[in-house]
Amino acid sequence: MENIPYYILLIIGLFIFLSSFFTVKQQTAAIIERFGKFQSIRHAGLHLKIPVIDKIAGRLNLKIQQLDVIIETKTKENVFVKMKVSVQFKVIQEKVYEAFYKLEYPHDQITSYVFDVVRAEVPKLKLDDVFERKDDIAIAVKRELNEAMTTYGYDIINTLITDIDPDIQVKNAMNRINAADREKSAAEYEAEAQRIRIVAKAKAEAESKRLQGQGIADQRREIARGLVESVDVLNQVGINSQEASALIVVTQHYDTLQAIGGDTNSNLILLPNSPQAGSEMLNNMVASFVASNQVGESMKLQRPRKRDREDNERNRRNELPPQEETNDEQ
């Protein structure tokens, strides 16, 4: 029983001895106070403090931290949007004292500055400009935060605007506008494609007609050349031009009948279709040629006679005296 106080004192002494040792984790700073007054800053590792006299006032995380701030504000055209601003910051290792003693609630301080900058910048912009210039807004937030938070021992690494969420009705309207714009573009492209097809088709048809006309002209030219050669050959054997032309016409007539008869799917009927009809056609053509020649010869004979009469009448008038010509006219 006499040894009990001894054991108690031993246990208390052991406890006090062990409490004088403490560890600090990596990327962490511990603030040591002595009787409530700042004593020192301890970094990662095993450390010793005076029991009861010294105490750990707090620990600061030196890692990069992120604070997400959700802000609701309005744009220049009075459209309300919700924006999510992510602020990445850390405690400056050389300014642990300022970070611990000068600022009690750093998150609240950072949030206040973010609200102030965003609500000053966004109302100057239209909704479309907010999406396009979100990086400029983030830079403005970072600049403002750095100027304010560096004094308190905090370094702003980066600020990111990770979300811009307009009102649901505004988003629906924007979607309808985009859909209408895309439909308009699609209609314009379709119309342009249709125009190109029409122009190409017209050019192809024009080229086809040109080639077809050229082919017909070449065909007729060759036919005419062949007829001339045929007439020349027939003239050489004593057949005159009229008979040769009639013979060629009859030959072409029978060639045409043969070509039509060779087509089994043809529904064409030619009337009359007999040797007598061909002979009559030949006789009629010969008679018409003869008649046309006679008319032409008679017209040739009449022209000199008429010219002689006109000359005689003119000469007679020139020979008469002027008085007699006047009397005649009376």
Number of helices: 9
Regions with little confidence, pLDDT below 50 for 5+ residues: 323-330
- Largest sheet: number of strands, sense, barrel closure: 3 strands, antiparallel
Number of strands: 8
How much strand content do the residues show? 15-25%
**Using only CA atoms, what is the Rg?**
59 Å
Average residue-wise pLDDT: 79
What percent of residues adopt helix (DSSP H or I)? 55-70%
**Terminal CA distance:** 192 Å
Shape: rod-shaped
Order of helices and strands: HEEEEEEEHHHHEHHHH
Class by helix and strand content? alpha+beta
Strand ordering within the main sheet:
3-2-5
Give your account of this protein's structure.
With 330 residues, the chain is an alpha+beta fold. It is 62% helix and 19% strand. The chain is built from nine helices and eight strands. The termini are far apart. Mean pLDDT is 79; it is low at 323-330.
